[in-house]
Amino acid sequence: MEFNWPKVRLGDHVDSCLGKMLDKQKNKGVEQPYLGNSNVRWGEFDLSDLAQMKFEEHEHERYGIKPGDLIVCEGGEPGRCAIWEGELPEMKIQKALHRVRAKPSFNNRYLYYWFLYAGQHGLLEPYFTGTTIKHLSGRALSNLVLPQPPIGHQEFMASILGSIDKKIQLNHRINNTLQQMAQALFKSWFVDFDPVKAKVSVLEAGGSDMDALLAAMEAISGKTADQLALLRTEQSERFAELRATAALFPSAMQESELGEIPEGWEVTSIGKIAEVIKGKSYKSAELSSSNTALVTLKSFNRGGGYRLDGLKEYTGKYKPKQEVFAGDLIIAYTDVTQAADVIGKPALVVSDSRYEHLVVSLDVAVIRPFEEKLKPYLYGLAGTDGFQSHTRAYTTGTTVLHLDKNAVPDYQFSMPSKALAEAYERQVSPLFSLIDQKIQEARSLASLRDTLLPELLSGELEAPSAETKIAEVANA
Asked: CA-CA distance, 133 to 359, in Å (whole number)?
């Protein structure tokens, strides 16, 4: 693409520095959280798992970041970046990141979108150093050559594209909330056994079976007795459904090899109720344009959950069992030691109209329950602290982490009745449907942004025609 603006050297228009080297033996000062490479995604930050290192008072200015700073990855995926919005106070950065502050001739948000375009089209690669592991050094960052539109156009471009990205980020936040709701319900029902314990508590205090049932209904719904009475009057069908669900929970606990579990539940393992199928190994020569795509480690969000931008188009062969479909449960089986963000984490595959076939790669396994309705239950199970602790214990490797092939099928848990697992499926299915919808919306918005990006960068599209172009693309 030809740019209509003058080309300049980035280092002449920004102040930048690398973060602090992580050295536990030499670092002094007070422990503080910092951003590492794995905390920076394209356009956003994952702050769910921040590490800490020691910083001295005189280092706060050099390694601290401020709202509006552009944070750029030095390694991993060199050039990946996001604008810091001041999400947490007094944040610092580690040496794997550059902090970039634009001088008056540039807008940092414009720089973000230039990096996004450059990363998508390989414009950064000539500046990388290293063979096996690529890096974007401080010198290389300064030597980057990019177009310099008038500052007014930079600000306009950042505003137009930023409004789209805000909608994408809102969808991500909504999905995180929905995921948390589903996981909280699973924990209450199948880990903490709240409805069962509510019944037990009432019965031990001399209450009736009806009192115990109402206590379980309160535990399930979060409603008080007065609110349940109102629900019975105003929404009798909802009340009846809630009562039927509460009746599925036992009224007593029993001893097992896992400790106390609800009476009548059986201790079993994932391998007894589902098939665990490892993915397909592949060669780089097989990664070319195709209507088939591999589901890879990049298909997982940090901490679990599915993302559409981690697929690799694939032309090789695979076993029919390795093909996955919307709603299938997958688990990450490897990870790099430095990140260790996704190994053992679950995700539910999301429908993707771009491809006819999706296939799990060698780093991923699909878990197929023998009964279809158990997928949401198994997804909830894989997200529990117990499952995650189990998988960490069965992980080996130094540079690359590997999950033992039997780690997932051997995991033991207390299995509720089929009717109760299906009741959970009915409760969370609407949440997962909405998650799928929000992911699809985010993909459409990202496609709109990527359509506008080169035209805005080149100067082909300027105000006010950009607003018209947005309407045309959105309605296409």
From this structure: 27
User: Of 365, 392, 415, which residue sits at a domain end?
Assistant: 415
Provide the pLDDT confidence category of residue 459 given band limits of 50, 70 and 90.
Answer: confident
On whether residue 210 sits in a domain, the answer given is no
For residues 366 and 322, give the distance between their C-alpha atoms in angstroms, rounded to a whole number: 8
10 Å Cβ neighbour count for 167?
14
Question: Based on C-alpha coordinates, what's the Rg of the chain?
Answer: 26
What's the per-residue H, E or C state across 217-238?
HHHHHCCCHHHHHHHHHHCHHH
DSSP label at residue 464: T
How many structural domains comprise the chain? 2
* Structural domain includes residue 363: yes
Exposure of 356 by Cβ count < 10 A (0-12 exposed, 13-18 middle, 19+ buried)?
exposed
- What's the pLDDT at 22? 79
Mind giving me the DSSP string for 82-145?
A: EE---SSTT-EEBTTEEEEEE-TT--HHHHHHHHHHHHHTTSSGGG-B-SSS-B--HHHHHH-E
Tokens of residue 65, six digits: 């970041």
Cα–Cα distance, 126 to 373 (Å, whole number): 50
Give the residue from 150, 123, 162, 10 showing the smallest Cα distance to 462.
150
Q: What are phi and psi of 255, to 5 degrees?
A: -80, 145
Domain boundary among 149, 184, 216: 149
- Give the single-character DSSP code of 216: H
Distance of CA 475 to the CA centre of its chain: 29
How many of the other CB atoms lie within 10 Å of CB of 159? 13
Residue 135 burial by CB count (10 A; 0-12/13-18/19+): exposed, middle or buried?
middle
Report the CATH number at residue 134: 3.90.220.20
**pTM for this model (two decimals):** 0.84
Cβ-Cβ contacts under 8 Å for 87 (sequence gap 6 or more): 45, 47
Q: pLDDT per residue over 385-408, tens digit each?
A: 999 999 999 998 877 889 998 999
Q: What is the chain's percent helix, strand, coil content, to nearest 5?
A: 45, 20, 35
CA–CA dist 396, 309 (Å, integer)? 28
Range of the domain at 72: 7-149
List, in order, residues 6 or more apart from 122 with CB less than 8 Å away.
Answer: none
Q: Tokens 């491809």 sit at which residue? A: 355
Q: How far apart are CA 222 and CA 189, in angstroms?
A: 13
